[in-house]
Design brief:
Number of domains: 1
Shape: globular
Number of helices: 12
CATH architecture: Alpha-Beta Complex
Radius of gyration: 18 Å
Structural class: alpha/beta
Distance between the termini: 22 Å
Bound molecules: beta-D-ribofuranose, calcium ion
Strand order of the largest sheet: 3-2-1-4-5-6-9-7-8
Order of helices and strands: EHEHEHHEHEHHEHHHHEEEH
CATH class: Alpha Beta
Helix content: 25-40%
Length: 313
């Protein structure tokens, strides 16, 4: 089975790895990329998405989207993690294509309406574009095949605050709308992605297998790896965004649970994702009133990291 997908992204080193998978995997039909601020400004995200497609020799529509969160003040992009250019500050070739004139949200709405019940939205950045698409045309809730989101954390704790994962923290108001919209949704959060480490040996295989694109992935990986070494003491990096595609194509490598999600939108726990398992009673009902979704609670990190390298080698 082939999966037609729209990839919503803020590339970003780990986004770039995932985009390479989306561009190369024979069971993914990449209908387009939609870009958001997050790891970088949205203009940089758009540039990088266009560049990655170009290096893969693919003409993929790229539609630019959210430049800032829906409500909260925007934080500066994390240049110490992804580099100021989002790709580890390595020199980049010129881009010879342009983005769509349509907005990201309009692109999502149009594409889902053109192919009802076929399209999976895979979102690996802050969720403003999906929130805007929902506002533009709420009927897409019943027309998407699925929504897979890299973001959040159930038991793992946060990576940008003690409790919040970066994509949720960057736009908690958008996340709250998207995670509770009532569409068939799976959250692939830090409980899964922190189990995975893309090692230098994996990247050496990817570099060898992907030509010019491989050299870009390896160069940006070197910068990202330094960050992981300093902050988590691991030799390698967590391929967060590739895990969303791994879930779509290799779901047997993940442990999931069904239940209700809510997102804290302000205060000290801003961006935290709260999960109430289906059928579990709490002192009040308020955590169990949102639509049922699936969340990843565990993952076979070694197998997923090997899968990423196998796909790109
Ligand atoms: C997520 O935050 C971003 O920095 C990464 O690209 C990934 O999408 C991990 O928390
Ligand atoms: Ca990302």
């Amino acid at each position: 089975m082939t999966h037609p997908i729209i990839f919503d992204t803020d590339p970003g080193v780990d986004d770039a790895q995932a985009i390479a998978i989306a561009l190369r995997h024979p069971k993914l039909e990449l209908l387009g990329m939609t870009t958001t601020y997050g790891n970088v400004d949205v203009e940089v995200a758009t540039h990088n998405a266009l560049l990655l497609a170009q290096l893969a020799g693919r003409e993929i529509p790229v539609a630019q989207g959210a430049a800032a969160p829906l409500v909260k003040r925007r934080h500066a992009p994390p240049a110490h993690i992804h580099g100021a250019n989002g790709l580890g500050d390595i020199p980049l070739p010129a881009v010879n294509r342009q983005a769509e004139s349509r907005s990201a949200a309009q692109f999502i709405v149009d594409t889902v309406n053109e192919r009802p019940a076929e399209v999976t939205l895979v979102a690996v950045g802050p969720l403003g574009n999906l929130a805007a698409a929902l506002q533009l045309d709420p009927t897409i809730i019943d027309k998407v095949k699925g929504v897979v989101i890299m973001g959040g954390s159930i038991h793992e704790g946060g990576n940008v605050t003690p409790v919040a994962e970066a994509n949720m923290f960057n736009d908690p108001d958008a996340a709250a709308r998207v995670l509770t919209a009532g569409w068939p949704l799976t959250l692939v959060g830090l409980d899964a992605t922190h189990r995975c480490v893309l090692r230098p040996s994996h990247m050496a295989r990817i570099e060898a297998g992907q030509g010019e694109l491989g050299r870009l992935l390896a160069g940006s990986y070197a910068f990202y790896r330094d960050f992981y070494h300093e902050f988590l003491g691991i030799d390698g990096c967590c391929p967060h965004d590739s895990c969303a595609l791994a879930w779509l194509l290799q779901p047997e490598l993940f442990t999931t649970a069904r239940g209700h999600l809510s997102v804290v939108t302000d205060g000290a726990a801003e961006g935290q994702t709260l999960f109430a398992p289906e059928g579990r009673g709490f002192i009040e009902e308020r955590w169990s009133t949102t639509p049922l979704v699936d969340v990843c609670l565990e993952a076979d990190g070694q197998a997923i990291s090997d899968w990423i390298a196998d796909v790109l080698a």
